[in-house]
Amino acid sequence: MVFVVADNIVGPLGVNTDENFEQVIRGNSGIRLQDREDYGPAPFHGAMIPHELLQKAIRGLNLEDYTKFEQLVIVSVTEALSHTTIRLSDPRTGLIISTTKGNIELLEQQEEGVTPPREQLQPAATARKIAARLGAVNTPLVISSACISGLVAILTGQRLIASGQYDHVVVTGADVLTRFVLSGFQSFQAVSAIPCRPFDADRTGVSLGEAAATMILSKDPHNADIRLGAGAISNDANHISGPSRTGMELAAAMQLALSGSGLHPEDIGFVSAHGTATLYNDEMEAKALHHAGLAAVPVNSLKGYYGHTLGAAGLVEAIISVKAMKNGVILPTKGYETPGVSMPVNVSNTLRHQPSRHFLKTVSGFGGCNAAMIFSKK
Question: What is the mean pLDDT of residues 225-238?
Fold first, then answer.
């Protein structure tokens, strides 16, 4: 078995997991109207980390020579490790970094016509730089699989421990909301003009966000409350950016996660869905929940609190959901009011005090990729 022994989130709602969960419980969102001329001619809604909060997080760590992306990862890992005796200097401890864009911010920090050194943009090189700063002795593994990266990183860490390669794995992920990222999603006409409304009839698209998150995995159950169940990955190969129109492929990943954990739909306390608030994603997810026999299970999306944090999303949302399960609550889907999918699902829109022993986390991404994983109380 593999256990979750510590975690951290650094984002617009706080610099540790407790701060973040407290804000979510209160119904507060990190999404704000951003009036940034350097991001384009028009304001946009996004969940960006306030400058003063980032400075609070990095204070005393001497990270002035690191990019924002690198700072976020280092801060998150450092804080998570502080709750354990696990060290990256131990050859039996691995490091996984998930991201979709890495140091893409460097492109926007150069004079026009100047390109930063290629190695600074390569995720593997960035990961090695971060690993060196953290004192890691093992070469870090980079997971960059679109928006499922964070959950795939957790699943990969679990498998590395189960195979005997490591006793512990530090799984971390981050992405920064840059003009490059914003313009990319705007080119798909996928960015909402208002804070996102997952699964709602009036949803008009995604709100973007930025964050870093870390989950420390171990084969040692000491002081652990959560164990990892089975996980699975699928690809629907439907379109470079559009998801499956049937939801069958995500449903297959859900069913593999359930069966691999020895569970049935009725054992699941809630589903933490990807829930981006785009027309096609939420429709696909609703269909997948039906196909997997999970339509009656409470489902929520946390995008209304954090926006879409890309390579960090699977980690951020899994950590908040773990915290919710520990506290015996099912979180509401911020922004949801009116059912807006063709196959109705049980979207949670109020804070429910309801104990759970297991929850299912799902993610989907460009290229048709999907992943699902079970998290359980020990």
Answer: 95
- Residue 298 phi/psi, 5-degree rounding, is -55, 135
Nearest to 162 by CA among 293, 313, 3, 312: 3
Locus of tokens 């981050």: 174
Question: 187: which residues sit within 8 A by CB, 6+ positions away?
Answer: none
- The answer, as to whether pTM is greater than 0.90, is yes
Distance CA 54, CA 137 (A): 27
Predicted confidence band of residue 119 (pLDDT cuts 50, 70, 90)? confident
| Residue 103, token pair as written in the block | 């140091």
Distance CA 334, CA 337 (A): 9
pLDDT, tens digit, 9 for 90 and up, residues 251-267: 999 999 999 999 999 99
User: Residues 96, 215, 13, CA angle at the centre, nearest 5°?
Assistant: 115
What CATH code would you report for 227-377? Answer: 3.40.47.10
Output the six-digit token pair for 122: 């390569």
Q: What single-letter amino acid sits at 371? A: A
- Rounded to 5 degrees, what are φ and ψ at 360? -115, 125
Q: How many other CB atoms sit within 10 Å of the CB of residue 125?
A: 16
CA dihedral for 283, 287, 290, 294, sign (positive or negative): negative
Contact 186, 112 (CB under 8 A): no
Q: What is the β-pairing status of strands 358-365 and 329-330?
A: unpaired
Over residues 327-337, mean pLDDT: 98
**% of the chain exceeding 70 in pLDDT:** 100
Residue 342 is encoded by which pair of tokens? 């063709």
Q: How far apart are CA 91 and CA 71, in angstroms?
A: 24
Q: Which CATH number fits domain 2-218: 3.40.50.620, 3.40.47.10, 1.10.10.10, 1.10.3110.10?
A: 3.40.47.10
What DSSP designation does 215 have? E
pLDDT digits (tens, 9 = 90+) for 145-174: 999 999 999 999 999 999 999 999 999 999
Amino acid letter for position 346: N
The CATH 3.40.47.10 portion of the chain extends over 2-218, 227-377
Amino acid, res. 35:
D
So what's the pLDDT on residue 107? 85
Length of the chain equals 378
Task: Identify whether the C-beta of residue 143 lies closer than 8 Å to the C-beta of residue 175.
Answer: no
